[in-house]
Amino acid sequence: MKALVLKKRGVFELLETPIPEPEANEVSITVACCSVCRTDAKMWQSGHRDLVLPRIPGHEISGYVAGDPARPVSIWPGTACGTCRYCKGGRENLCPSMKILGFHRNGGFAEHVTVPRTSLFAVPQELPMPLAALAEPLACALHGLDQAAVDTGDRVLIYGAGTLGIFLALGAQARGASALIVDPCREKLEKSRVFCAHIGVPGIEDPREASGEFDAVINAASAPATLDGLLKIRSGGRFCLFSNLATLPESGSQLLAVLHYRELQLVGAYGCTRKAIESALDLLAVNRGELGFLIERIMSLEDVPAVMADVLGGEQFKYIIDFQNQT
Ligand SMILES: [Zn+2]
Ligand SMILES: [Zn+2]
Which residues surround ligand 1, an ion (CB under 5 A)? Predict the structure, then answer.
């Protein structure tokens, strides 16, 4: 099979490799689509806490069980133990023996991938496979909303108008909350204007324009200034650290004082649970007619190295490798 292997930082190699054999309780998946994540570009550039090289990256995957076109699936990219307190409590993304596709084990930048049986979720018939590959990033957003305990009637402020910011807004609206997106880049806001208007989410460039108090704030951007969102939360509200911050803002201690005096909750979100993948597939199916704008480009495996710098820049929506209809 064709596979794109990250040999070392900054170096991809397109190789012909044997099709991997599934181990016990695993299945072989013929990859239909694999979406390129900013995390893939970050680890291409500078590695990642969970990355072991050489590695076939790719964790946003849709495909067919054993190549059977009647069995389309999206994949939860984790391999968890199933027996620890986190796995048993429905927080399998925190399993201490977690192995993630594309990080600890080979992922979807290849024609075939092996995954645990427990990682498969049926794709609704009406959902195209490129969109089904976005179940994982949408699930991460839904998990972030869970962590921030976003519920009906909540006002939610979201930093970042990239794919994840849009997905957070979509998920928030779907549970009856009202979201507002802030992003300093006008062009970026413009790219999702039609969709955001469709789901009733305004977008602003300047956070000072976000008036009133919010029940929850979530950052889908790593700028230190996103932590200023703590100042916009009502007493007892929540801040979800969805993106890791590049550095801490100088005002860090003042911001923590707000946490203290107003009894705010600061929570983290990393990855997603299986349940979130299921919810994501439903939400994608409902909104499939409107989400095409998120697909910046459909491409072949050969095209991936050339777009890495672009993905890293974070100005574009999703690049998706499509293995279907290729010879
Ligand atoms: Zn991702
Ligand atoms: Zn576990």
Answer: 37, 39
